[in-house]
Amino acid sequence: MVKAMQCTRAVPLASSSPALPAEYVFLSGAPANGARRMIVGDSFDQPRFMLEGTGSYLSFMPELRARGRTLWLSHAMNPFQLTLPRVPLVNYMADPDLYPLALAKAETIARQASGAIFNHPTAILRTRRDVSARILATIPGVRTPRTLRLSAPTRGRLIEAIMTSGLDFPLLIRPAGLHGGEHMVRLDSLAELEAAHIRLGVDDAIYASEFVDFADPDGRYRKLRLVVIGEQVLWRHLIIGERWLLHSDGRAEGVEDEERAALARFETETLPALAPTLAAIRAAVGLDHFGIDCSLRPNGELLVFEANACMNLLDNSTIPPPNMWEAPIAAIRAALLALLERPDQWLNQAAARPGRRAELLLRAS
Predict the structure, then answer these.
(1) How far is CA 255 from CA 218, 249, 260, in A?
(2) Region 124-151: what's the mean pLDDT?
(3) pTM for this structure?
(4) Is the bond leading into 47 cis (omega within 30 degrees of zero)?
(5) Are 231 and 332 part of one and the same domain?
(6) Is the model's pLDDT at 17 over the cut of 50?
């Protein structure tokens, strides 16, 4: 039986909790495309820098970053020998397309390490868009757009791969490793595919997905973002817009009251109704922390666009306070910090290795 997800409020640690970790090792690396993002506000505060394809939360939790050391893993499959302290490992890499080799190294480290591992790299690799879509599609009450990962160095090869894949128009095309709708195009016909501007390269992979029209009866589109932290599911936001490609800056006018009302009934109505489905998603994904972008359909089905750890969940810099998203973001931050402070509650607990040394020697040939 799948265990139901808990309510969304962050629960303070009990006084009997184990001693908090004094130190972490964060597993990170350089994204294959070298992309990073800088967030600047209208203030004297220092900019925040985020590598693309990470969990992003360290940019907004300096107190957590200060308690850890970052082990940087190169984007090359070379032999290595490392000496690590015996402390909990936190895998910060979140995009399988941007960190394939670094995640493979992290898997080697995880196999040899002792203690708990947050967001195990093997589970991260399973969140590749095409793999995740197949896994989640097997869950009752969940629909995922069929997604294929194609190697397409030329337009002719891309057209051939799509036409032999069984995918029908309309479909969505996006380069692997990009997020936020960057360079994603919707194609309604073969003629549009032949004419579309699509970024192609010898080493680039392309995702092709069926387009599922999720317009509601009033003609508007609604995309819900949920956050899984341990056994909790928290609300991040609901974006309501006139177009299918939804972002925070594309909200329709006058929808704040609807989003506020949806937030108010989330814990009492929406979450209990979705709890078994969300618990099954969490079990299938196998991560301690990730986000879910989805649409709740009128028949109760959950249309899941993506479920992965590569989501910016703590940034609220685009809209000045006060606003309705401050409280949900604060709850997400508190819940994430509480879970990170309890490695004994993480999903992956590596077997203890013999010896009393404070450090662990790791090798990969």
Answers:
(1) 13, 13, 9
(2) 96
(3) 0.89
(4) no
(5) yes
(6) no
